[in-house]
Design brief:
The complex is a heterodimer of chains A (about 475) and B (about 45). Chain A has 19 helices and three strands. By secondary structure, chain A is mainly alpha-helical. Chain A folds into two domains: about 220 residues, Growth Hormone, Chain: A (Up-down Bundle); about 240 residues, MFS general substrate transporter like domains (Growth Hormone, Chain: A), CATH 1.20.1250.20. In chain A, β2 and β3 form a beta hairpin. In chain A, α7 packs antiparallel against α8 and α7 crosses α15. Chain B is about 55% helix and about 5% strand. Chain B is rod-shaped, with a radius of gyration of 19 Å. The relative contact order of chain B is 0.08. Chain B has a domain of about 30 residues. Classes of the chains: A mainly alpha (about 475), B mainly alpha (about 45). Chains A and B meet through α1, α7, α8, β1 and α13 of A and β1 and α1 of B. β1 of chain A pairs antiparallel with β1 of chain B, so a sheet runs across the interface. Chain A: InterPro entries: MFS (IPR011701), MFS_dom (IPR020846), MFS_trans_sf (IPR036259), Proton-linked_MCT (IPR050327). Chain A: GO terms for molecular function: transmembrane transporter activity. Chain A: This is OFA family MFS transporter.
């Protein structure tokens, strides 16, 4: 599928002297917007009231968006790699923004199906394409620090929720003067306010993401950072200088081992994230009442968001020094020990519970941010975006499995917010097992066999289809 | 900070204005700082 010339990859090849530090903000411009997907709880209750529905039906909108994220990233990954980041960011911006606008129409006209179609399906496609769009470009611009580069972008996805939550509350307060977000007399915003919120976010995100699309550049095929010696990569056994196509990658055991690693890491993280607020209150319940107040529980959720975002940047950057396999041994191995501690002694002191949970969530975020660099190490930069897209199906699967495991067990024990620490132990020990599986899968990862490597001519033809003919450098 | 090395002498070189880089970082940094501030404020209720 051809794209208009102003979006084409050959139009955005950077000239010598271009400063690569313009690329991370371009990537962040996209990820900060699509990260809004994790801030849907802000208006969930308002949507329930507006559609006279229930949390489950409204929750499907978010679930649908995450499933579409996985599907679109897997289906369009090769298209993204072939056409370059500008085309991908542009398409992502249009889909993400259209999703909000169609959703806004659905809320304003009381048609829930339009919200499913808009935010869930159309927006979800923008989410998937947007998530993978800057990743391979960043890896190519930062061959010396791929973990730092992808950490910066994917940190933006965590940061997007931090921005969207308070911003949405503020906007809904402006659009509905009767709306009280928290404290005494707290209520939900009107449907009209949420419709206007969607309209506003759709337009703001469109402008912001297009800014990213128009400043993004790809490096020339022979470009390398000053002082960077590619031979230093060759010296490391777990980092390849060869190329594996997306079609071949899914035939390798390495891809599926990494799929299991990501699935286990995400499933374990979701186990805590899903229940965070109720969990901290339940862990410190004495004689029916909790020693942790509702406001403190909200603070705990905020703290986890910070560690989720910070972990993406800190741990992914650290992986440039300790290696990708090494850092995943920490995420999964140390994570496993932390989970055991949480289950056994987590209720002995609030500070201990908070420290353990915060570290676990930082590993959850780190797992997301480090995986593109791990893929680059194993399969090369050739079609790393497409391979990343296919791997994100593990996220979609974990998004279903994690809550299913935790909710299934907790539901059999009672109601979250009325349980005790012991009620969480079975679920936490299952997560210990999940992490153990991921740890073993990571240990089994070895360099990809040479039979899967792509011939150099095919790689050159894919990555620079017209650079020898009519490339326009910027 | 600029780190380009290329072996294509036929192509002209470019210079990325520092102002553009600063503007781009400010554009993404400002909302992020707002979000961080609001979240830290919420998280502080824990202590």
């Amino acid at each position: 599928m051809a794209v208009p010339s102003f979006l084409a990859r050959e139009r955005i090849i950077a000239r010598p002297g271009f400063n690569r530090w313009l690329i991370p903000p371009a990537a962040l411009a996209v990820h900060l917007c699509i990260g809004q997907a994790y801030a849907t709880s802000v208006y969930k209750a308002a949507l329930v009231a507006n559609f006279e529905s229930n949390l489950k039906n409204i929750g499907y909108i978010f679930s649908l968006a995450i499933v579409m994220l996985g599907l679109s990233a897997a289906l369009f990954g090769t298209w993204v790699d072939r056409n370059g980041p500008r085309a991908a960011m542009f398409v992502s911006a249009v889909f993400w923004s259209t999703g909000f606008l169609v959703g806004s129409l659905g809320i304003a006209t009381d048609q829930l199906w339009l919200l499913y179609l808009g935010y869930g399906v159309i927006g979800g496609i923008g989410l998937g394409i947007g998530y993978i769009s800057p990743v391979s470009t960043l890896i190519k611009w930062f061959p010396d620090r791929p973990g730092l580069a992808t950490g910066m972008a994917i940190m933006g996805f965590g940061g997007g929720a931090l921005i969207a939550s308070p911003l949405s509350r503020q906007l809904m307060s402006w659009y509905d003067p009767n709306y009280v977000p928290s404290g005494v007399g707290a209520n939900v915003a009107s449907g009209d306010a949420v419709a206007k919120l969607f309209l506003t976010l759709g337009l703001v995100y469109l402008v912001f993401m297009l800014f990213g699309a128009f400043i993004i550049r790809v490096p020339a095929a022979d470009w390398k950072p000053a002082g960077f010696d590619p031979a230093s990569i060759k010296a490391k056994p777990m980092i390849t200088t060869d190329s594996v196509s997306a079609a071949n990658a899914i035939k390798t055991p390495q891809f599926w081992l990494l799929w299991v690693v990501l699935f286990c890491n995400v499933t374990a993280g979701i186990g805590i994230l899903e229940q965070a607020s109720g969990m901290i209150q339940d862990f410190f319940r004495e004689g029916g009442s909790s020693t942790v107040a509702v406001t403190a529980a909200a603070g705990f959720v905020g703290l986890l968001s910070l560690f989720n975002m910070g972990g993406r940047f800190v741990w992914s950057s650290t992986s440039d020094y300790v290696g990708r396999k090494g850092i995943y041994m920490v995420y999964l191995g140390v994570g496993l020990v932390l989970y055991v501690l949480l289950a056994t002694v987590g209720n002995s002191a609030t500070w201990l519970f908070v420290v353990l949970a915060a570290l676990i969530i930082s590993f959850y975020g780190g797992g997301f941010a480090t995986v593109p660099a791990y893929l680059r190490d194993l399969f090369g930069t050739y079609q790393v975006g497409a391979i990343h897209g296919r791997l994100l199906t593990a996220w979609a699967a974990a998004g279903v499995a994690g809550p299913l495991i935790v909710n299934g067990i907790l539901d059999s024990r009672g109601k979250v917010g009325e349980l005790e620490a012991a009620d969480y132990r079975p679920a936490l020990f299952i997560m210990v097992g999940v992490l153990a599986v991921g740890f073993v899968a990571n240990l089994l990862i070895r360099p990809v066999a040479s039979k899967f490597h792509e011939p150099k001519a095919a790689v050159d033809a894919f990555t620079s289809p017209s650079t020898t003919e009519a490339s326009v450098t910027r | 900070m600029s780190t380009s090395v290329s072996n294509e002498p036929q192509r002209g070189t470019t210079h990325t204005p520092v102002g553009l880089i600063a503007f781009a970082w400010a554009l993404v940094g400002a909302p992020l700082a707002y979000g961080l501030y609001q979240t830290v404020k919420t998280a502080s209720q824990l202590f």
